[in-house]
Every structure is written in C-alpha cells, then in structure tokens.
Amino acid sequence: MKKQAKALVQHPTGIIGIILVLFWVSVAILAPMLAPPQDPDNAYMMVRHGFSSLPNPPNGQSPWGTTSGGYDIFYGIIWGSRTALVLGLVTVLATATIGALAGGVCAYYGGILDGVCMRIVDLFMGIPFLIAVIVMTTVWGKGMDKIILALIVFGWHRYARMMRSEVLVVKEQEFVLAAKNMGASPMGIFFRHVLPNALSPIIILMSINIGRMVLVAASLSFVGIGAEPGFADWGQMLNFSRNWISGIPGAPFYYWYTYAYASVAIFTFVLGWTLLGDALGTMYGKQEAY
C-alpha cells in the first residue's frame, strides 16, 4: 500500500490531480467559514444582494460580483463546491456499489443468473445516458436529489460490466480454487477473496466518474432542468450568465465575472478527479504488466 501511494505521488499528473482534489475538498469543508450563510437552515441557497436583473461587478459587498438576480458569485462558488463534492461522491458510491455487486455476483455464480443480468446491463447501455437523465429530471422536476437519483439509475451498468470482466478472471485463480477446496462458503469466497481482488479498475473508474457526474449535473442546471432557482450550483451560475456572455457592444468581456469563476471551478474540479483517475489507471496498468 505504501509503495502504491508513493508511486501515485511521484506520478506527474497524479500530483496535479491530488492538489486540485484536496483544494476543492478543503473549500467544501471550510465553506461555513469562507462564506458564512445568512440562514444556516438554508445554507445552500445563495446570498442575494437585491433583485436587479443586471449583474453587478466585484465590490466591497460582493468581492466577485453578483449574477443576474443579485446572487453573490463568491458565495455560490464556495457552497457550490459542497454541492459538487456531495453529488459526485454520493452518485459514484451508489452506482459503484450497485454495479459492482450486481456484476460481481452474476459473474461469480454464472449460468442463467449471469445471462439475465447481462441482458439487463445491455438494455441500459443501449439507452443514451445524457438523454435518459434529461428526460427523467424533466419528468420529476428540479432538485439536486432528483438529479442524483437519475444519475444512479442510469449510471450503475458501467461498473457492472467492468466488475463482471474482472470476476470472471479472478474466480479462476488458484487462491479462489483453494478456498473452495477447503470448504469455504460461496458468498464468503466472493466477499473475502474475489471482490477485493477485482476492485482496482472499479476504483479508477470511480475517480474519473466523480468529475463526469458533476459535469453532467452542471449541464442539466445550465439548461434549466437541474438545481432549484438560487441553489448553490456551478451549472446554475452559468445559467444565470447566459444573457451576459457576449458582454456589451464594444466590450465583449464586460460581464466576465458572471461566467469566469464558475467555469474555472467546474474545469479544475473535473480536471482534478480525471487526472487522479488517470494516474491510478497508469499505476494499475503497470502493476498488471509487472
């Protein structure tokens, strides 16, 4: 374990990924201190400075300016980091757990069970992911809880397919056969020997998918079918800036602050988790080759 951690830290892209991930995790943890909420019971609702439809540039009251509707950009970015982190972790942990257990158990027992499971997986894989999520969130209405549920419903099958491939290889290894000969129970073998030795690619996919899920959720909020109005979400902040991206005649970047901060936040958050997953994937590939 120490050897793997050392290899990860020494990996160039891994270092950048770790730094970016730790930065946003720290911002999310320290959100109440960095941007104290006016109403602790509704901390995720962005602070408003008036109700003007025109954005306001950075000033003493709002250091990063306000969006259309008077929403404080600094507050939205800080608390939006919590939204992104919670959404990414909850979605990925749920989809990975469901997919890994479904794909792993079906592959381990094989036969009719495996065939039925894989046909269900094929059915979900045939449905365009983004379109399915858009349709489901449109039907259910706005809200981060609905987005998370939609991402889980249509995101678990990737883990199931990957876990099945790994389990089919691991269950034929000598240590698994030895456990069977010693009289260990099938479920005991699966959870003690097969599952732990098949999790490496799942962990890599989880790291990459945290950024991917946040990007999908931001896209939904950008088109107006994601977060509730005023909720601290980076995608919704970009939605507020849509009418101001082109600036004013002669000054195309006049309202740069309405979209720059949210764009950088999404980019660095997704980049961090992607680079971390890429570094883990490179390490895993090297270990397999070795």
Taken together, the total number of domains comes to: 1
Helix content: 55-70%
CATH level-four homologous superfamily name: MetI-like
> Whole-number average pLDDT?
87
Rg over CA atoms: 22 Å
The CATH architecture can be named as: Orthogonal Bundle
Query: What's the CATH first level?
Result: Mainly Alpha
Q: Please mark out the parts with pLDDT under 50 across 5 or more consecutive residues, or reply none.
A: 286-290
> Terminal Cα separation, in Å?
16 Å
CATH topology: MetI-like fold
Helix segment tally: 13
Largest sheet: none
- The counted number of beta strands is 0
Task: Tell me the strand percentage band.
Answer: under 5%
What is the H/E order? HHHHHHHHHHHHH
SS-derived structural category: mainly alpha
Description:
- The protein has 290 residues and is mostly helical.
- The protein has 13 helices and no strands.
- The longest helix is centred in the N-terminal third of the chain and has 37 residues, at 73-109.
- It is elongated, with a radius of gyration of 22 Å.
- 43% of the residues are buried.
Sum up the structure in keywords.
elongated; 69% helix; mainly alpha; 290 residues; MetI-like fold
Short description:
The protein is mainly α.
Itemize the secondary structure elements and their pairings.
Layout (H helix, E strand, L loop, with lengths): L1 H9 L1 H18 L1 H4 L38 H37 L1 H15 L3 H12 L3 H10 L3 H14 L3 H8 L4 H9 L5 H23 L11 H7 L16 H33 L1
